[in-house]
TrEMBL record:
Name the record gives this protein: EAL domain-containing protein
InterPro entries: Biofilm_reg_signaling (IPR052155), EAL_dom (IPR001633), EAL_sf (IPR035919), GGDEF_dom (IPR000160), Nucleotide_cyclase (IPR029787), PAC (IPR001610), PAS (IPR000014), PAS-assoc_C (IPR000700)
Chain ranges of the GGDEF domain: 290-422
Record Pfam families: EAL, GGDEF, PAS, PAS_9
Domain PAC: 207-258
Residues in PAS domain copies: 28-80, 135-208
EAL domain boundaries: 431-684
Organism of origin: Paenibacillus agricola
Tree of life domain: Bacteria
Length: 684
């Protein structure tokens, strides 16, 4: 650098220092000798104020930090030339506080120690840090002292942090929680909702829901949980949650709901709640959704139980019935007690076929004995069904329809069901038509017998044929026995019809015998009315003589229900038939009427297991155990056993393994008229 260039560089460096973006100062003998423009603007003074000594170091430095500056100056004056860095607070001319970062060093010039350095304004940074720290402290205070559980999960659902209330609410310590995933705390029913909340939070979606958890001590508590995403640098890395204990509120609400909407005896929904839920289903169905059904259940013979055991045990019995009914329900179904021995069931989203299967299951289930204070009590139920499509009827109307159907069921035959239809309004006319025309069914040759084989389960050989009546009405078509037999019994026409059945069946058997068919038992059903008739046994003898039929090949079937009526007369008739060499079997065994003592007292040769228990075998239900028990009991009493309604190979195999003697059902052959049985008989 030559002499000519020196002024240029001096001016350049002077300009650079004067206009530098940081404050620059020079101190000589403890006072400012130079400050640049940035330094003067930082403190709000003019540059000449510093140069003239009007502004002292002590004036602009916070008194609590002045000692830091003094110590640094002393080090410099003692020859410490190492650069120093420290932070102090200073005052602006207007009195506001300034946070600064000081960089100082020293240099000896002409034997004098000169201190110089730079100053950076860090006020915004410091204030931001202070606000952040205050925010952290406020959050920590809220976190530590909140009565609600506050927690956070990582991206996998494990606890990252928990407050003291989290420990109190869950019963787990902080260390235990920090090693846990959230799902073990949630009761199983609420896990799907809790998982959804967690996933939503990871997607940036907040949630608010009520969940139940299980504390460490096993106690169930209810929480209202708010969950929201945890973001770091704009990315979601987990979730936060706040949980409030609402157990007392839930229990109070449940108690109030119990009083308003539930039966105090059985704790089932009452009529009000049932109608409300039915109304909701109706509205839902009006939108074109699936159909639904209402079942009206009335217990048969409950008055007898109530009168026999007293009202207190009657109430206990109703509780047992309600508990058993609940075992068959889906989560969406509603069981209600309307009062007395009347129950209703709402079955949403169900087909007619499913409703029928359900009603049959309820009928069967209720016939199983109840244990009441050491007594074995049997009962049955009449069920009315109203199918809903949500188009016309309201809740009360549907319940009324189900009630009508129930009375229709009870009137025709107990322990069954009936589906409401408009035709029920003309049921009386229909029944009168049957009663009137039944008088002419025999002379007009409208009655016909079908026969269903009964085979030996061990070797498949034909053992018997059961005669089953059919009525071909000239206008109404084929009328099922279930329609006309009860009317025939009520009207007394069953006596003539029963005699016709026995006469026709014996004559047909003789025709088979004449055709060279090996002999087999002929099973004929008889009713209570026939057995109660004084001339019944004599009429049987007359038919046997007239047809030339040997009594040893005749088997008369009676149902369990006859044992409830005129026991002395019926027993006497059965004993006389037995003395003639006629076999007696008890049909539909196990459906709820028979006392085991009757099996010992009456002259039964054979027990026929009701088809409902056989159906249960393929469904692996209690039918297996009941069937096995009946077989064992009958064999111990020297009776043979016939299983009715065998339709599947599984049922056949099981019964054969259990040493059941005989069986009948569609698995072997459906009931057929005589001319269609020829092939079967010749094969035998």
């Amino acid at each position: 650098m030559n002499v000519v260039e020196l002024p240029f560089y001096r001016n350049m460096f002077q300009t650079l220092i004067d206009n530098a973006p940081v404050g620059i100062y020079v101190i000589e003998d403890g006072a400012f000798s130079y400050v640049n423009t940035k330094y003067s603007h930082l403190f709000g003074y003019e540059r000449q104020d510093f140069a003239l000594g009007l502004i002292s170091i002590e004036k602009i430095v916070h008194p609590d930090d002045f000692a830091i500056v003094q110590n640094n100056m002393k080090k410099r004056l003692l020859g410490d030339k190492e650069e120093a860095h420290y932070k102090i607070r200073s005052f602006h001319k207007n009195g506001s506080l300034i946070y600064t970062e000081m960089h100082t060093t020293a240099m000896e010039i002409s034997g004098k120690i000169i201190v110089f350095g730079s100053v950076i304004d860090s006020t915004e940074q410091v204030l931001a840090q202070q606000q952040l720290q205050e925010s952290k402290e406020r959050y920590k205070s809220l976190f530590d002292n909140s009565p609600n559980a506050i927690f956070s999960f990582d991206d996998l659902g494990k606890f990252l942090c928990v407050n003291a209330s989290s420990e109190q609410i869950t019963g787990y310590s902080e260390d235990e929680l920090l090693n846990m995933h959230f799902t073990p705390l949630i009761i199983s029913e609420d896990i799907p909702q809790a998982t959804k909340n967690f996933i939503d939070a990871k997607k940036g979606i907040s949630s608010n829901s009520d969940l139940a958890i299980t504390r460490k001590d096993g106690k169930k508590i209810h929480l209202n949980v708010i969950q929201f995403p945890m973001k770091v640098n704009g990315e979601i890395v987990g979730s936060y949650g706040v949980a409030r204990d609402i157990t007392q509120k839930i229990e109070y609400d449940q108690q109030m709901e119990q009083f308003a909407f539930y039966d105090p005896l059985t704790k089932l929904p009452n009529r009000k709640l049932f109608e409300d839920r039915l109304g909701q289903v109706i509205n839902f169905s009006k939108e074109g959704r699936n159909h639904f059904a209402v079942l009206f259940i009335d217990l048969d013979r409950f008055k007898f139980i109530n009168d026999s055991f007293g009202h207190q045990l009657g109430d206990e019995f109703l509780k047992l019935v309600s508990e058993r009914l609940q075992l068959s329900l889906r989560k969406v179904d509603t069981l209600s007690r309307l009062g007395g021995d009347e129950f209703t069931i709402l079955l949403p989203d169900i087909s007619e076929e499913e409703v029928i299967r359900f009603a049959e299951h309820v009928n069967h289930m209720l016939t199983e004995p109840f244990q009441l204070e050491g007594h074995s009590v049997t009962i049955s139920a009449s069920i009315g069904i109203a199918l809903g499509k949500g188009k016309e009827n309201g809740a009360q109307e549907l319940i009324r329809h189900a009630d009508i159907a129930m009375y229709h069921s009870k009137k025709n035959k107990k322990n069954t069901y009936a589906i409401y239809s408009k035709e029920m309004d003309i049921t009386t006319t229909y029944n009168l038509t049957i009663e009137r025309d039944l008088k002419f069914a025999i002379p007009n040759k409208e009655l016909e017998l079908y026969y269903q084989p009964i085979v030996d389960l061990k070797n498949g050989q034909l053992k018997a044929m059961e005669a089953l009546i059919r009525w071909h009405h000239p206008e109404l078509g084929l009328i099922p026995p279930s329609d006309f037999i009860p009317i025939a019994e009520e009207s007394g026409q069953i006596i003539k019809i029963g005699a016709w059945v026995l006469q026709t069946a014996c004559s047909q058997w003789k025709q088979w015998e004449a055709a060279g068919i090996p002999p087999f038992k002929l099973a004929v059903n008889i009713s209570t009315k026939q057995l109660q008739c004084d001339s019944f046994v004599d009429s049987v003898i007359h038919i046997l003589v007239e047809t030339g039929f040997q009594p040893t090949w005749l088997e008369l079937e009676v149902t369990e229900s006859i044992l409830l009526d005129d026991v002395v007369v019926i027993k006497e008739s059965l004993m006389r038939l037995k003395q003639l060499g006629i076999s007696i079997s008890i049909d539909d065994f196990g459906t709820g009427y028979t006392s085991l003592s009757y099996l010992r007292q009456y002259p039964f040769d054979k027990v026929k297991i009701d088809r409902s228990f056989i159906d249960d075998i393929s469904r692996d239900m209690n039918g297996k155990r009941i069937a096995s028990a009946i077989i064992s009991l009958a064999h111990n009493l020297n009776m043979s056993v016939v299983a009715e309604g065998i339709e599947h190979d599984m049922e056949f195999q099981y019964l054969m393994e259990e040493n059941c003697d005989e069986g009948q059902g569609y698995f072997f052959s459906r009931p057929l008229p005589p001319h269609l049985l020829q092939l079967f008989l010749h094969q035998q």
